[in-house]
Design goal:
Radius of gyration: 10 Å
Helix content: over 70%
Mean pLDDT: 67
Shape: flat
Strand content: under 5%
Largest sheet: none
Distance between the termini: 17 Å
Number of helices: 3
Structural class: mainly alpha
Number of strands: 0
Low-confidence stretches: none
């Protein structure tokens, strides 16, 4: 689980590099909140 969280952080960071205009902080916060509901949706 710890490794998965690190991976999510890396993916968000990589995506932010490509498109810095997107609100990644809010997106990651929502993904974390929704992770309990559906892991797949948060990962997508």
């Amino acid at each position: 689980m710890k490794k998965e969280r690190r991976w999510m952080k890396w993916v968000i960071a990589e995506s932010a590099k490509e498109q810095p205009a997107l609100p990644w902080t809010r997106a990651s916060r929502n993904a974390r909140r929704d992770a309990g509901k559906s892991g797949k949706a948060a990962r997508a």
